[in-house]
């Protein structure tokens, strides 16, 4: 069946659209789109306000956007700022600017180099954070890697959790097969500069409960740490440890009680 040739929208200056189905949508000025939008490519170099939902293969945000509905996209890159009132469903999401999402986020690969704030839950195969992430719900992934700052009000659950502490990180509960938390050894000028401006923030992970098969923790404060093999490194303050196979505790760590179960 021959595919119907779709039209493009290109808005420069100030313009409005009623939404609909298009090939490419480009905003170089200020655009207000009324209704749902379906397109192959969405690119915003200016300011765009979409009242409905958007479904697109690629979205590139170099300016600012406000989506009142849900966003369904294969590849989304946010270099500017983007506010999403609904849910975000994506294959790949890269946030190099800032993004606020009021609903849930579901993807295959999520990369954060800027800042992202999510009111709902986040689930993805891979999550790579080298910026700042705030999640009010739960966060679930096959692999969770962080070299920046995160605050998760709910559960962080991943097969592999690899955290290099650069600033304060926090989750209510953490669960996984292999959990590694280390203080950064990187003494680059960039990281020194960040630490200078964030002098009130300690390089520390805080959680109520941390549970996994194999754990190595540094500079971690927790009520309970539970696992099979556990190594407690320097700077930790743990009230209670429950282990099955082995437990090692650094001399520069504080542990309230320990029990082999």
From TrEMBL:
- Please give the start and end residues of each transmembrane region: none
Signal peptide positions (record): none
Q: Where is this region: Disordered?
A: 1-22
Q: Which InterPro entries match?
A: BacA/B (IPR007607)
Q: Which Pfam families match?
A: Bactofilin
Q: Which family does it belong to?
A: Belongs to the bactofilin family.
Q: Indicate what this protein is called per its UniProt record.
A: Polymer-forming cytoskeletal protein
**Which organism was this protein described from?**
Fictibacillus phosphorivorans
């Amino acid at each position: 069946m021959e595919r119907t040739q779709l039209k493009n929208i290109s808005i420069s200056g100030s313009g409005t659209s009623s939404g609909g189905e298009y090939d490419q949508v480009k905003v170089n000025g200020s655009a207000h789109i009324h209704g749902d939008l379906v397109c192959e490519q969405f690119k915003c170099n200016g300011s765009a306000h979409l009242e409905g939902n958007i479904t697109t293969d690629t979205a590139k945000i170099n300016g600012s956007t406000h989506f009142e509905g849900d966003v369904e996209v294969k590849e989304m890159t946010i270099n500017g700022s983007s506010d999403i009132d609904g849910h975000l469903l994506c294959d790949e999401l890269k946030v190099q600017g800032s993004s606020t999402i009021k609903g849930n986020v579901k993807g295959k690969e999520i990369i954060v180099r800027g800042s992202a704030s999510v009111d709902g839950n986040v689930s993805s195969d891979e999550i790579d954070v080298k910026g700042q992430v705030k999640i009010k719900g739960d966060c679930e992934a096959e692999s969770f890697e962080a070299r920046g700052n995160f605050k998760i009000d709910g559960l962080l659950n991943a097969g592999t959790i690899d955290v290099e502490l650069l600033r304060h990180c926090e989750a209510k509960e953490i669960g996984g097969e292999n959990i590694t938390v280390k203080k950064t050894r990187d003494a680059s000028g960039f990281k020194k500069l960040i630490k200078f401006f964030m002098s009130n923030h300690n390089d520390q992970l805080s959680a109520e409960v941390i549970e996994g098969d194999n754990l190595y923790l540094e500079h971690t404060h927790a009520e309970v740490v539970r696992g099979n093999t556990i190594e407690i490194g320097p700077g930790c303050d743990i009230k209670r440890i429950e282990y099955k196979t082995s437990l090692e505790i650094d001399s520069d760590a504080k542990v309230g009680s320990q029990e082999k179960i």
